[in-house]
Amino acid sequence: VLVEADLRAVYSHGINRLKMYVDECKTGTVAVDAEPAVERERGATAVVDGNNCLGAVVGEFAMRVAIAKAKENGIGWVLAKNSNHYGIAGHYAMMALQEKFIGMSWTNTSPIVVPTRAKNPALGTNPIALAAPTAQAAPFVLDMATSAVALGKVEVVNRRGEDLPLGWAVGRDGHPTTDAAAAIQSSTTGEGGLSPLGGMDSGYKGYGLAMLVEVLGGVLGDANYGRKIRTWQSPLKDAKANSKKNDAEEDAGGANLGQAFIVVDPAVFGPGFPTRMDDFIEQMHTLPSG
C-alpha cells in the first residue's frame, strides 16, 4: 500500500508513513497477532471486526469480502470497525477493478479538521475513493480527502520550512493560518487544525462530505466517530500532549476507525458500462483548454 501510494505520487501516504506503522507494531498500539474476521453478514452486506489489526490488513480483508458479495449479489457493502489508519483509500477501491467492478471506500480518521465556523478539530480528513473500470482508457480513480488538504501534505510543507497556502488550516483562534507547525500541533492540542474542503469560502461542503463519511462509516458501523476517535498518533506520544483534549469525549482503547468498502458489478444494470466510461473520459479530455 505504501509503495503504491508513492508510485501514484501520493507521497504523504507512502514510505513517509512506514515508521509510524512500525512504531505502532512495536508499541502494541495495533494487534500484530490478531486477524480481522466477519462479525455478521446478511445478503450483500457484512460487518468486519478488524480486531485492532493494521488498517491495511483490515482494508484488504474487508474489500475481498465485498468483492465476493458483489460476485454473488451484484453489489457488496461491507463495514469495518476496530480498524486503524489504512493508507490511501484508492488502493481498496482499485482492488475491484481486477474484476471489472466499481469500487468505493472511505474511512474516518483522528479529529484534525475544524468544522465550519468552529475553532476546535472534530472531524478527520475522512477520505473518499471511487474506481470505475473502462474498456480502453485508463480506469477512472478518484481518491480525495474531505479536508482542504491531507495532513501528510502539511507535514511535507513543514519539513521544507515553508508556509501553508492560506485556506489550508486555521489557528488556535479559529482564523486562517499559514503556520504548518501549528496545524500539525493541533492534532494533539485540540485547538485549530485543517480546514474542510472548500477552505475559507466553501468549507461547509467539505464539512458535509466529512459528515457523510462519519454517518456511513463510524456511526453506521458501530465504530468510533468524531471526537470519540483518539488524537493522531496519541499512543506514540507523551500523554501530556493530550491534556487539552476532552477526555470525556475521547474513547479509550484502540483507534476503532470505521471504514466502508463497496463493490458494484456494473453488468447487473446492463451491458456497455466500460465503453460508456471511455466515451465520458474522452469528453473530458477533449475539452478546450481554459
- pLDDT < 50 stretches: 237-248
Total beta strand runs: 10
State the share of residues found in helices, binned by percent. 25-40%
Task: Give the DSSP E fraction (strand runs of 2 or more residues).
Answer: 15-25%
Structural class: alpha+beta
Indicate the radius of gyration in whole angstroms: 19 Å
Draw up the topology in text.
Layout: H1 2-7, H2 18-27, E1 37-42, E2 45-49, H3 55-73, E3 75-83, H4 89-95, E4 102-107, E5 128-132, E6 140-144, H5 151-159, E7 169-170, E8 176-177, H6 180-189, E9 193-194, H7 199-219, E10 257-264, H8 273-285
Helix pairs in contact: 5-6
Provide an overview of this structure.
With 290 residues, the protein is α+β, with helices and mostly antiparallel strands. It contains eight helices and ten strands. It has helices at residues 2-7, 18-27, 55-73, 89-95, 151-159, 180-189, 199-219, 273-285, and strands at 37-42, 45-49, 75-83, 102-107, 128-132, 140-144, 169-170, 176-177, 193-194, 257-264. Strands 1-2-3-10-4-5-6 form a seven-stranded mixed beta sheet. Strands 8-7-9 form a three-stranded antiparallel beta sheet, with helices on one face. Helix 3 links the parallel strand 2 and strand 3. It starts with a helix and ends in a 5-residue tail after the last helix.
